[in-house]
């Protein structure tokens, strides 16, 4: 597997099914502090930024600043409320869905350019927020990939196994969480994702691993990079 196109998620992507040669749009987020990063008030003026990148650009072009587009900026505290997240992403989803269904007509081309959403990349905390998962990792079913329980987190996988999360079970958990008015997690799910209406997005398939924190910071200590 070399790219998103080689995975199973791409085979189920409705935009790619319709137009296999669509340009892949990847979203990602990052948070920045615009004041002194030290002290108890370091997050008071923190901002969350969302970007997009065309995955089909050549590798030597993708890291260039001019290849990265800004989607939106918002105070992080504002996005901590679910209704605010829904309202913030509503126009973004509308534009991206229009782009996926209609495409772009550029006068210098004889045809039409088509686009397909692929992934939303972020750190673990931001991915859980976007996916509608619980945002604490010290209790309950804290993993967005499987149903591991916190009390079994140190048990070697050679001695125990955990069911992976699936689209069907996740959707059922979301419905249960919504019926509980998002008051408590259901199997680690606290509610609906603000991107749930984005074509080709699903919280189980569209939020890749956070390799930097999982590996580089020692959470998965048995993995050695060569």
Structural notes for this entry:
With 226 residues, the chain is α+β, with helices and mostly antiparallel strands. It has a domain at 1-122. It is 27% helix and 17% strand. It is built from 7 helices and 6 strands, in the order ααβββααβββααα. The protein has a 4-stranded mixed sheet. The protein is globular and about 60 Å long. The protein starts with 7 loop residues before the first helix and ends in a 10-residue tail after the last helix.
Structural key phrases:
alpha+beta, 17% strand, two-stranded antiparallel ribbon, 226 residues, single chain, four-stranded mixed β-sheet, globular
Fold blueprint:
Blueprint: H1 8-11, H2 14-18, E1 23-33, E2 46-54, E3 68-75, H3 76-79, H4 82-102, E4 104-105, E5 112-113, E6 115-121, H5 124-131, H6 167-179, H7 211-216
Parallel strand pairs: 1-6
Antiparallel strand pairs: 1-2, 2-3, 4-5
